[in-house]
Amino acid sequence: MERITLYHNPACGNSRGALEMLRARDVEFDIIEYLKDHPTRERLGKIIDLLDGPVADLVRKDKRFKELKLNPADYVEKKAVVALLLEHPELMQRPIVIRGKRAIIARPPEKLAALL
């Protein structure tokens, strides 16, 4: 089985759920706490390339997004999303799970089953 990478935020219930699911399945994986170890421009680009859905899905449109007075329509292109997440990594959707040439946003954690 290909090694799995989990982009994790320990404060997030969905992220903790994905972590528990990986541990329960006894698979080997790496954890990246992306708020401590911020993804680079290159890494964000690779994550986006591996995701199946729209690039806009990678951006959390939460309270912080609104506090920054951001417009969701401005973050539908890869370049804009990467620039935003470099400046505000807390806006990255979580958890992100990567296995091989595929990445998913495991929100809710049950979506992770598709990669296992």
Biggest sheet statistics:
4 strands, mixed
Number of DSSP strands?
4
Instruction: Write the element-wise H/E pattern from the N-terminal end onward.
Output: EHEHHHEE
* Global structural class: alpha+beta
First-last Cα distance: 9 Å
- Taken as a percent bin, the fraction of beta residues is 15-25%
Q: How many H/I helices?
A: 4
Could you give the order of strands across the largest sheet?
2-1-3-4
- Uncertain segments are none
Q: What average pLDDT do the residues reach?
A: 95
Features:
alpha+beta; 116 residues; 4-stranded mixed beta sheet
Brief write-up:
The protein has helices spanning 13-24, 41-50, 63-67, 78-87, and strands at residues 4-8, 29-33, 96-99, 102-105. By secondary structure, it is α+β, with helices and mostly antiparallel strands.
Q: Topology, please?
A:
Layout: E1 4-8, H1 13-24, E2 29-33, H2 41-50, H3 63-67, H4 78-87, E3 96-99, E4 102-105
Parallel strand pairs: 1-2
Antiparallel strand pairs: 1-3, 3-4
Helix pairs in contact: 2-4
